[in-house]
Design goal:
single chain; 6-stranded antiparallel beta sheet; 5-stranded antiparallel beta sheet; 1 helix; globular
């Protein structure tokens, strides 16, 4: 696997080695030993989630508060998305900054999002099947979220505003300055 650092420390793009021929392709989507050796990250993924979204669906920006904070390793099985990770660790040198990565069935890329980050994505293909590996169990009382269109974040969601589709819940998230966040100096692992 190839590890690509992003503009925010800890947010990593992972490109698996893909073996292709006239029959199709094969790749190992996750190997705990190789992941740890390549990234230096020692975490155990305990929950896998999958979603199906149609074109224009925006999910986010979500996170779980401590002690239920989650790292995520995400990928697209079918279709394509623009995936977003936002640093929400107050005091971090990159607080309020984000990384945007295209994840698709064609590029096979994965994104590792550490604890202390909000996460969201927008579907840019007709539909997308999206998979999440999480290193902590979901807890509804620990849900946190930030408004997808917070002007202080200035996220480029790529699609025209009129094409974006949100759940009622995702339309009601607070702005960054009103949300419960993480402290950069408090360990999350």
């Amino acid at each position: 696997m190839k590890i690509i650092n992003t503009s925010i420390d800890g947010v990593l793009i992972i490109e698996p080695k893909v073996f292709s021929d006239e029959r199709g392709y094969f790749y190992e989507s996750f190997n705990a030993k190789q992941f740890q050796e390549a990234t230096g990250i020692t975490t155990t993924f305990v929950q896998d989630n999958q979603s199906l979204s149609r074109y224009g669906v925006l999910r986010g920006l979500h996170y779980q508060l401590a002690p239920f904070a989650q790292s995520k390793l995400v990928r697209v099985v079918k279709g394509s998305v623009i995936d977003i990770a936002v640093d929400i660790r107050v005091g971090s040198p990159t607080f309020g900054k984000y990384v945007a990565v295209e994840l698709s069935e064609d590029n096979h890329r994965q994104l590792f999002i550490p604890r202390g980050f909000a996460h969201g994505f927008i579907t840019t293909s007709q539909s997308a099947i999206f998979q999440y590996k999480c290193d902590n169990y979901y807890n509804p009382e620990a849900e946190g979220a930030i408004a997808w269109n917070d002007p202080t974040l200035n996220i480029d969601w790529v699609l025209p505003y009129q094409d974006i589709s949100l759940s009622a819940k995702d339309m009601e998230h607070p702005q960054l300055n009103e949300a419960k966040l993480f402290d950069y100096n408090t360990p999350l692992y």
